[in-house]
Structures are given as structure tokens and as C-alpha cells.
Design a protein that fits this description.
5-stranded mixed sheet, disordered N terminus, 31% helix, 10 strands
């Protein structure tokens, strides 16, 4: 009699205090551990609240299903729920069949959506690696654009310098022609006379469509004024 009283007290403490809260990820499996005392050879079962006969999902002496599987290890048994869905969240009971009243462990299951933190396939280190790769590609593209821009500016600068050089060459040629004047009729000496020179700068068309045309002929007109 005394032994039965102790056993009843132990079972009451199990029902009151053994409550397990588990969080599962949507689409993944979750395993629930159920432990009981003096349940080595008893039949185990897993049910959803309120755990009537129609709420029993699987038994240790029954058939395994694709959704629910049970593994009996004596006083401890394991229940696996596959492919979690939002509707699987709720209150469950781990039950032990006994002579008289069955004993239970309460399980509260929460199902969360899959996120980057709890997704084992994408770790934070891989995320950082992807960001670094994107930054490296962006730097390479920017450097390529700047290189093409620099070459374009340099080529245009060389073309402008060529035009200025042609103009400067024509001015030098005109100045050289002005240093020589006709021989004086009276003294017969060669004297340098100043003269007015008209010159012009000719720009050549760089349009590729006109590259087949011959370049225009450079023409410079000199004039001198004979002093009276």
C-alpha cells in the first residue's frame, strides 16, 4: 500500500512538472524526446491535445508513417515529425499505457518560418563571402570604365595638340618669309623690310565618313609693301 502511494505521487509530479517546449523550422523535421519512469515494457504513444482516441498519431506497437515515426528505448522514446507545417504547431502529449490511468508528458511545439539564421545551408560566413565577391566585381568594373575614359581623354588631347602644332608651324613659316625682302634698287644692298602677312589656320575634318577624301591643300598667302 505504501509503495503504491509513492508510485502515485511520482506519477503526479511527472504530469505537473514535465512540460517540454520545442521550436521547429517549417519544412524540416523535429524530434521530440519523451521520458517516463517505470515504462520499460509499456506501450508508448504520441497524441495531439486533447489526446482522445481519435487524436493518437502513432504508437510504439503500431505502423510507422511518413509523417510520424516513433523509436522505443524503454523508459525513453523518441517521436519524429517530418516536413513541419504551420498547422503542426500546438500542444502534444507523450503517453504511456498503464493499468488504470495513463501517464503523460506535455509538449508545446512551435513552428517558425525558415530564415537565414536558422538555415543550415547558408551560414553567415558564406553570406560575407558573397558580399566580398560582389564588391570585388564592382571594383573591377569601375576600374575598367575609368581606364577606357582615361584613354579616350588622352586620344582627344593628342588630336588637339596636332592641330595646334600645325597652326604654330604655319606661323613660323610666315615669320621666316618676312625676314627676307627684295633688293633695293638705289643702293643695291639687301635690307630687311617689314611686311604685313596674312595667314589662316586650316582645321581638318576628323569624321571617319570623310576619310576617303584627300586632305585639303595647305595654302598660305604672303604680301609685302614696298616703302616709297
Amino acid at each position: 500500500m505504501r509503495r503504491n502511494l509513492v508510485f502515485a505521487v511520482v506519477l503526479i509530479f511527472q504530469v505537473v512538472f514535465q512540460t517540454e517546449a520545442i521550436t521547429g523550422i517549417e519544412g524540416n523535421p523535429v524530434t521530440i524526446t519523451c521520458s517516463h519512469s517505470y515504462a520499460d515494457t509499456n506501450i508508448k504513444y504520441f497524441c495531439r491535445d486533447p489526446c482522445d482516441n481519435a487524436d493518437v498519431l502513432i504508437k510504439s506497437n503500431g505502423q510507422q508513417t511518413e509523417k510520424y515515426r516513433i523509436e522505443d528505448k524503454g523508459n525513453t522514446f523518441y517521436v519524429t515529425i517530418s516536413n513541419l507545417e504551420k498547422k503542426d504547431a500546438g500542444i502534444y502529449w507523450c503517453g504511456i499505457e498503464r493499468v488504470g490511468a495513463d501517464t503523460y508528458n506535455k509538449v508545446i511545439l512551435t513552428v517558425e518560418k525558415e530564415s537565414l539564421e536558422n538555415n543550415p545551408g547558408v551560414s553567415p560566413s558564406k553570406t560575407i563571402m558573397y558580399v566580398e565577391i560582389c564588391l570585388a566585381v564592382a571594383v573591377v568594373v569601375l576600374a575598367t570604365v575609368l581606364l577606357f575614359f582615361y584613354r579616350y581623354r588622352k586620344r582627344n588631347g593628342q588630336e588637339n595638340n596636332g592641330t595646334e602644332y600645325a597652326t604654330h608651324f604655319m606661323m613660323k613659316k610666315a615669320q621666316h618669309a618676312n625676314t627676307t625682302s627684295p633688293v633695293s634698287e638705289e643702293g643695291g644692298d639687301s635690307k630687311t623690310q617689314s611686311s604685313d602677312v596674312c595667314y589662316s589656320t586650316v582645321s581638318f575634318n576628323k569624321n571617319p565618313t570623310c576619310s576617303s577624301l584627300p586632305p585639303p591643300t595647305e595654302s598660305t598667302t604672303y604680301s609685302s609693301v614696298k616703302p616709297k
